[in-house]
Amino acid sequence: MTVLWRKSSHSSDGTTSQCVEVARLGCFVGVRDSQRPGHGHIMLTREGFNVLIQEIKDAGP
């Protein structure tokens, strides 16, 4: 199985080097550091990932 890691569209403007990548891993979502992809990743349930994203949005810039 090939895993497709994706970055946020906000990461492609070249102004930031601090990015994460996400991938669908069966019923989980993988999250990893885009600068160190070989250092592993964390796995969240889809519900947990959605909560994480909402918390980040609520925290603001």
* SSE series: EEEEH
Termini separation: 36 Å
Helix tally equals 1
Contiguous low-pLDDT stretches (5 residues minimum) are none
How is the biggest beta sheet arranged? 4 strands, antiparallel
Features of the shown structure:
single chain, 61 residues, alpha+beta, four-stranded antiparallel sheet, 4 strands
Describe it for me?
By secondary structure, the chain is α+β, with helices and mostly antiparallel strands. It has a domain at 20-59. 23% of the residues lie in helices and 30% in strands. It contains 1 helix and 4 strands; from the N terminus they run E-E-E-E-H. The chain has one helix at residues 46-59; strands at residues 6-7, 20-25, 28-33, 42-45. A 4-stranded antiparallel sheet has the order 1-2-3-4. A hairpin with an 8-residue loop joins strand 3 (28-33) and strand 4. The protein is globular, with a radius of gyration of 12 Å.
Secondary-structure blueprint of this entry?
Blueprint: E1 6-7, E2 20-25, E3 28-33, E4 42-45, H1 46-59
Antiparallel strand pairs: 1-2, 2-3, 3-4
Give a summary of the structure in a few sentences.
This protein is of the alpha+beta class. The protein has 1 helix and 4 strands, in the order ββββα.
